[in-house]
Specification:
heterodimer, A: mainly alpha, MetI-like fold, 2 domains, two-stranded antiparallel sheet, 14 helices, about 75% helix, about 0% strand, globular, B: mainly alpha
């Protein structure tokens, strides 16, 4: 940005000479153009993202009826939250989901990227197939996996029965349902993180590896001493985005909504799904907003953390 | 896995044969696992009701009945059209708005520019499920429920597109627009006849990504439409599933129809999509 400023001075001079005396008005023209160009997106984001965000923090203090009548109830919604076992359950499920999903996505994304990082035709083909699930909607993904995991006659149960493990109700058994959602999430998302890691790996200069090899470093050493440290910005981005996805990504919502509806025994009732249920099935908009505001606070904390760590969203480390 | 990949890089080709074969095999198996469920969906959509749960991938008696059912017994064409229309509108409007904003934020100098950019960027991590309740209430207050406008307008604005376009414009050489500015062209002229044509590659990549995302979106259309005539196709198949509980052959046929356009788009434009995602992470 500093660089731009310097260059802009260079061009300002001939322009100023030509328009002798109109320098100020030219500058103002640029201001106006800038604001007009930014306005549609700025207003849109303000109305459809910013305002809901602020609203969600205040809506929690109201009771909202289905017809849109509001009454101030103070901390009632928050008090109710504390005593709501299903709210606590949804938080537990969310935390468990994050703890299982984020490392799995990191490992699978990085592993796949390392496996196929050389630009050969074969790897290009494998890359394409690995990314393919990403192009399908999560509703379709959920439906397909529901069929594959269906009780007794589903393909997976045929396979486990065939190798002698017996059949299970994968999505109907509280022991397995969340694991199944995690596995399906990994299946769906790993291609995306693989590509992000491939982008990061590309930026590591080859010479580093050659130098390490000459110095006698083995593959493990060069992985720990070169690849991992130089992938830090990428790793950071991946961990951040996958955490946000796990806490409140719409992908997760779609999966749970179509496949399990939070069941069995609320073992897949993620916080975002519980919020949706309270709002749109039970018309408890105020209560739902109060719960969502907890997630908003968590998100804001993550965002602030990201800003501090990346100096304002520029993912570069000098 | 990481170790073996590093090995591949470091040992001479001749010494590497067996390792390379194992790596290729692993890659193939993983790739197969990634697409197998989709092939299974395709297979089931051509099976009759009595063999739909058979373990054969190739149907014994392939049939088009499921597809015929989906298109004749349900208003499926309408749902497909709704999705196409909404996704296309969002994509076109979003590309205009984002390229304008990206251009201004990268190129024009005006007070508050960096603050505006950072504020926009801060919305990057706010996902829809978190703000769905107030967003719904807001949309209701603006009379956007059960309307195309309600499906389209709130989906246009996202920080990701602005961010990527700004990055792109920061890297475009300045000389091109400077000449035009000195010649007295207005900023909109510069944007329209210099900046937009220059950004064709990134705009086409983003167009594909936006279209895919909106074709596949579920939560917002589910929340804002109760009128069946406005259902987008994802909402339609999710409720299809509830109506035809055990008729998995119909459900898989519908899913195949819904998935095919995006899978085809991906296969055709894969190079562009993969490159743009690879570079979107950092930089």
């Amino acid at each position: 940005m500093a660089d731009n400023a310097v260059r802009s001075v260079d061009i300002a001079i001939p322009a100023a000479q030509k328009a002798a005396g109109f320098r100020l008005s030219n500058r103002h023209r640029e201001w106006i153009a800038g604001y007009l160009f930014v306005a549609p997106d700025a207003l849109g984001l303000l109305i459809f993202v910013g305002a809901p965000m602020i609203l969600s923090l205040s809506l929690g203090f109201f009771s909202v009826s289905g017809f849109g009548a509001y009454s101030f109830v103070g901390l009632d919604n928050y008090r109710r939250m504390l005593g709501d076992p299903l709210f606590w359950q949804s938080l537990r499920v969310t935390i468990l989901y994050v703890v299982l999903l984020v490392p799995a996505l990191y490992a699978s994304g990085l592993g796949l990227a390392l496996l196929i990082q050389n630009d050969t035709r074969f790897n290009g083909f494998v890359r394409t197939l690995l990314f393919m699930p990403q192009t399908v909607s999560l509703v379709v993904v959920a439906l397909v996996w529901q069929v594959l995991l269906i009780d007794k006659i589903g393909l997976l149960n045929r396979l486990t029965g065939w190798i002698g493990l017996g059949a299970y109700s994968w999505l109907g058994d509280p022991r397995f349902a969340l694991i199944a959602v995690v596995v399906i999430s990994v299946w769906f998302l790993m291609g995306f993180y693989m590509l992000i890691f491939l982008g990061g790996l590309q930026d590591i200069p080859r010479e580093y590896y050659e130098a390490a090899k000459i110095d006698g470093a083995g593959p493990a050493a060069s992985f720990y001493l070169i690849t991992l440290p130089l992938l830090r910005p990428t790793s950071f981005f991946v961990l951040l985005v996958s955490t946000v996805t796990a806490v409140c990504g719409s992908q997760t919502f779609d999966l749970v909504y179509v496949m399990t509806r939070g069941g069995p025994a609320n073992t897949t009732s993620l916080a975002i799904f519980y919020v949706y249920q309270q709002a749109f099935l039970f018309n408890e908009y105020g209560y739902a907003a109060a719960m969502a505001s907890v997630l908003v606070v968590v998100l804001m904390l993550i965002t602030v953390l990201m800003f501090m760590l990346t100096r304002g969203g520029r993912f570069t480390y000098e | 896995m990481s170790e073996t990949a590093a090995v591949e890089r470091q040992i001479d080709l001749a010494a590497l044969r067996p390792a390379r074969i194992i790596l290729h095999l692993a890659g193939l198996i993983l790739a197969f696992m990634a697409v197998a469920p989709l092939f299974w969906m395709l297979s089931m959509s051509f099976k009759g009701a009595n063999e739909v749960f058979g373990v054969n991938l190739i149907p014994d008696r392939p049939t088009l009945d499921n597809f015929i059912y989906v298109f004749t017994q349900v208003d499926f064409l309408r749902y497909l059209w709704n999705s196409f229309f909404v996704a296309a509108m969002v994509t076109i409007i979003a590309l205009f708005f984002h390229s304008m904003a990206g251009y201004a934020l990268a190129r024009l100098r005006f007070p508050g520019r960096d603050v505006i950019f950072l504020t926009m960027f801060a919305t990057f991590l706010i996902s829809q499920p978190v703000i769905i309740v107030p967003l719904f209430i807001l949309a209701r207050a603006l009379h956007l429920l059960d309307s195309y406008a309600g499906l389209i307008i709130p989906s246009i604005f996202n920080a990701f597109g602005i961010f990527l376009l700004r990055q792109f414009y920061l890297a475009v050489p300045r000389e091109l627009e400077e000449a035009a500015v000195i010649d007295g062209a207005g900023y909109f002229r510069v944007y329209w006849s210099i900046i937009l044509p220059l950004s064709r590659p990134i705009l086409s990549a983003l167009a594909i990504l936006f279209f895919l995302a909106n074709w596949n979106s579920f939560l917002w259309p589910l929340t804002i439409t109760s009128d069946q005539n406005l259902w987008m196709v994802q909402v339609a198949i999710a409720s299809f599933r509830q109506q035809y509980n055990a008729s998995w052959n119909y459900i898989m046929a519908a899913s195949t129809v819904v998935a095919l356009p995006t899978v085809f788009m991906f296969v055709i434009f894969q190079k562009r999509i993969i490159e743009s995602i690879k570079t979107s992470g950092i930089k």
